[in-house]
Design a protein that fits this description.
Blueprint: E1 7-14, H1 30-43, E2 49-53, E3 59-63, H2 65-71, E4 75-81, H3 85-100, H4 106-115, H5 121-134, E5 153-155, E6 162-164
Parallel strand pairs: 2-4
Antiparallel strand pairs: 1-4, 2-3, 5-6
């Protein structure tokens, strides 16, 4: 695979000058915005808004709508991509969903959270909820051990993916 670098430049601009994409399908609850605000206040802006330059010179957000909204008139880093409208829509449609497919290594998450101190109580609670979601449940006492006699072929009822244990 040959990877094309579509990043044209990194520019610092006032968030209020960025144009929201009319195709942004993500919504942000007050709770999510509150947590994002807390971590930005604690750490700062640690990621760039992703945008494309339109024919009129304005910058249209592809990713980072919530961060730009919270920043208001503050200056933010913006990665400007060399993509057309069709490509921007493809990125907008797939960027978050592909990231959401990532799994969790519970041991590494546990080690990381053991070393991280967060001032925000809300963010701390969110991380504890994340930790609780990935801890494997204890099998019931009557749980049978796997033997060669047990069929371990599996099929995901949602996507049809097949695997065996």
């Amino acid at each position: 695979m040959q990877i094309k670098n579509r990043i044209k430049e990194l520019r610092i601009v006032s968030a209020s000058q960025l144009v929201k994409s009319g195709y942004n399908w993500r919504t942000h609850s007050d709770y999510q915005l509150s947590l994002l605000r807390d971590i930005i206040e604690e750490v700062g802006f640690a990621g760039a808004v992703i945008a494309r330059e339109r024919s009129d010179g304005s910058l249209e957000i592809i990713d980072g709508h919530a961060r730009a909204e919270l920043a208001g008139n503050e200056e933010v880093p913006v990665l400007i991509l060399d993509v057309n409208d069709t490509e921007a829509k493809k990125i907008l449609a797939t960027y978050d969903p592909i990231g959401a497919l990532a799994g969790t290594d519970s041991e590494r998450l546990d080690a990381l959270l053991g070393e991280v101190e967060i001032a925000s109580q809300g963010v701390t609670q969110m991380l504890e909820q994340l930790r609780a979601k990935v801890e494997p449940p204890e099998p019931p006492e009557e749980f049978e051990e796997l033997t060669a006699d047990i069929d371990t072929n599996r099929v995901c009822p949602k996507c049809g993916y097949r695997w065996s244990e």
